[in-house]
Every structure is written in structure tokens, then in C-alpha cells.
Amino acid sequence: MALKIKRIYEKPGETDGERFLVDRLWPRGISQEAARLTAWLKDLAPSTGLRQWFGHDPGRWPEFQERYRAELQNPAKTELLRKLADKATHGTVTLVYGARDEARNNAIVLQDLLEQYLKADKA
């Protein structure tokens, strides 16, 4: 069982397992073939309004996380998250993102939320 995050600009690795792009926009300069994705989960990405508001401003990171988590409470998104968590119990899941900031991006929020689901399922 493994849950990882990785920039799409990093070369896909043998240990990535299933790779899921979690951005709303396709990353510039990356072909679908080079991305080697299992699926593109646009529906799990932050809304366009939230993404534009955040603008990768580090000062907005705490509020971005709160707003994004609120968006993810939508039942359809919760179902997708549960399916990803289930996949992570059976193998490696890599959440792929395009942001330059490796410390503050939506994949980090998703990874944390999925890890919470996995812990709850074990309890």
C-alpha cells in the first residue's frame, strides 16, 4: 500500500503504480503519452475560481486548504476519493500535479485527505 505525489514534469517511474493527474488544466509541454496516466481526475481538482484566487500565493495557503477541503465534501467527489483510497490499499497510487511549488499544491491536500480515509478504514 502506498500513496505518493509527484510533479508531472518528473519522469514516470517504475514504482509509481497507478498515476492520476489531479489538476483541472492539462500541464503545458507534456504529451498524454509522456504523462503515462491511469486517468485524469479533473473533478478532484480545485474549482477554477479557487485556483485563480489562490494563485500559488503562500500567504493564502492555509485558507486555500480549508476552501479546497470544503469543495471536496461534495458527494460525487467523496466517492472518487474513496475509490482512490481503495486503490491505494491494493497497490501504489501516485497523485500527479503540475504546480511548481512542491510544498503547497492541491495534491498535498488530496494526499492528506486520502491518508485520513485509509486510517479511518483501518480503525
What does this structure look like?
By secondary structure, the chain is α/β, with parallel strands linked by helices. The chain has one domain. It has helices spanning 32-35, 48-54, 61-71, 75-90, 106-122, and strands spanning 2-7, 18-21, 39-40, 92-97. A four-stranded parallel β-sheet has the order 1-4-2-3. The radius of gyration is 14 Å and the shape is globular. The mean pLDDT is 95.
Distinctive features:
globular; 123 residues; 5 helices; 4 strands; four-stranded parallel sheet; alpha/beta
* Helix and strand sequence: EEHEHHHEH
Structural class: alpha/beta
What is the strand tally? 4
Largest sheet: 4 strands, parallel
Mean pLDDT: 95
Query: Could you give the distance between the termini?
Result: 16 Å
What's the number of domains?
1
- Range of strand content: 5-15%
Q: Which consecutive residue ranges, at least 5 long each, have pLDDT under 50?
A: none
User: In percent, how helical is the residue content?
Assistant: 40-55%
Radius of gyration: 14 Å
Order the strands across the largest sheet as they lie in space: 1-4-2-3
Tally of DSSP helical segments? 5
Shape: globular
